[in-house]
Amino acid sequence: MDYIILPPEEINEIAVNLPLSKSVSNRILIISALTDNAAPLPELAECDDTRAIIDAFADPVSTEINVGAAGTAMRFLTAFYAQNESENAVVIDGSERMRQRPIGPLVDALRQLGADIEYLGEEGFPPLKIKGKRLLGGEIELDASVSSQFVSALMMIAPKMTNGLRLRLAGEVVSAPYIVMTQRLMEQAGATVDFSGGNLVTVAAGKYRPTTFTVDADWSAAAFWMEIAALSTSEFDLNRLSPDSLQGDREAMRYFEMLGVESEKADGALHVAPSPEMHARLTLDLCDNPDLAQPLAVTACMLGIPFRLSGLSTLRDKETDRLAALVTEMEKITFDLYVDDDALVWDGERHPIESNFIVFDTYNDHRMAMALAPIAIYAPGIVVRDIDVVKKSYPDYWNHLTEAGFTLVDPTTLADKEENNNEEETEE
Question: Are residues 190 and 130 in the same domain?
Fold first, then answer.
């Protein structure tokens, strides 16, 4: 299903109940599953990514698990089932795109630790057949430049290993704040973890203790409301959003300040409002926060602020190649973005828009849909395709846009109405 998006004359200044963090939720689910007599789970994120892990654990005797497009679930569950002693092997599969996303570094690391994992398709990619067993642990090296989720997956199962884990991180460590998040949640549950931000993670053998966790609102989702604030004159309260969050994407507050958005801690929320103060050019290294690239890039373009966003090599292996997708979609409204090594760049060049009918593709990527939709503030009537992709992380996104006053129209209803009108004219 697609949406035609029309902005209101004045956007409603609403309080937004953001989704809870799926990153925190997914880690809590794995840690709790590894804990004897675990405490009841807290309120968790309601999205496809978290649901994939919940569904996997719902049937403890299931031997076939399909995580769909949930990359975090694929990585975390691969490690979980590798250490989960069982007589039966488990097969983990996913969507067609998931079968193109690399998992080789994680599988290689788990095999070195004693895991029994077999590729059922192309080497280095899902689906996987896993025969769970107790892992020895010890010291290994992992390429940390592909995904921090590989590191987190190994960390969380490490207390169950006979010898614990000494994990040397090779290459540039991407999304390091997510590793720190994993460390902090593990420590809350009694694990002994040492990661000083260098290239060595150590986890002692031991047991998790039952722990009562809490999950705060999702900072990655908050970025799309900061985008709307930057492109409009409206203010919003983003509920349950904490500047003290474990989430690395809390840096969105600092980055969007450069794009004219002020943030202030309110009662149980973060208040965001547009400001005339903004940078003439945006130069950022997003190695630690690659998920913020899409809303930042779109916002900067619409505000006419040239930018260079580097540290984005991991975006090529997400739900789509996000760098290529941004270049393609922004070209539709005449912005000439280009990719320079691991950077997305716009030098300020654009051309007159030749068509008022602009259709944006989303590439089965939730963040593409949510980043592109606010362009309607500048170009009313844009079409965003495959709107259901937001269910991966923010199922209520379109409902919240409606609360803010946007009109969302199914193009097929307009086509049906036009067809009926034509039929009536013919009958006359």
Answer: yes
